């Protein structure tokens, strides 16, 4: 029997159901729309950060984030790991901005 982390399952479910808009108000999106988004964009929207804030937290340029979200390039392994940390704890990204 496989044991799953309840927090990870909860975050995954929330990610599929809601995406935060710029105003911080939840907006329901179809699951297909969410799954079609690049992972970096999904994580950025989960954290509620603007592109420039997300870039600052990750230590990359705004153009890098835009390139990931346009699916032109992919983030480095270390950046992907930092994004996964942000995904696990969306408040971490906000804390890193201060």
Key phrases:
98 residues; 64% helix; globular; DNA-binding; Cro/C1-type_HTH; 7 helices; transcription regulation; HTH-type transcriptional regulator YiaG; 434 Repressor (Amino-terminal Domain)
Protein model, in words:
Keywords: DNA-binding, Transcription, Transcription regulation. Residues 42-78 form the HTH cro/C1-type domain. This is HTH-type transcriptional regulator YiaG. The protein has a two-stranded antiparallel sheet. Helices cover 64% and strands 6% of the residues. With 98 residues, the protein is mostly helical. It has one domain (6-97): 434 Repressor (Amino-terminal Domain), CATH 1.10.260. Strand 1 and strand 2 (26-28) form a beta hairpin. Mean pLDDT is 79; it is low at 19-23. Helix 3 (39-47) packs parallel to helix 6 (77-88), helix 4 crosses helix 7 (90-97) and helix 6 (77-88) packs across helix 7 (90-97). It has helices at residues 6-17, 31-36, 39-47, 51-58, 62-69, 77-88, 90-97, and strands at residues 18-20, 26-28. It is globular, with a radius of gyration of 13 Å. The chain starts with 5 loop residues before the first helix and ends with a helix. It contains 7 helices and 2 strands. The longest helix has 12 residues, at 6-17.
In the CATH scheme, the class would be Mainly Alpha
Largest sheet: 2 strands, antiparallel
Strand order of the largest sheet: 1-2
Q: Do you know the CATH topology?
A: 434 Repressor (Amino-terminal Domain)
Q: For the terminal residues, how far apart are their CA atoms?
A: 42 Å
Order of helices and strands: HEEHHHHHH
Approximate helicity band:
55-70%
Low-confidence runs of at least 5 consecutive residues: 19-23
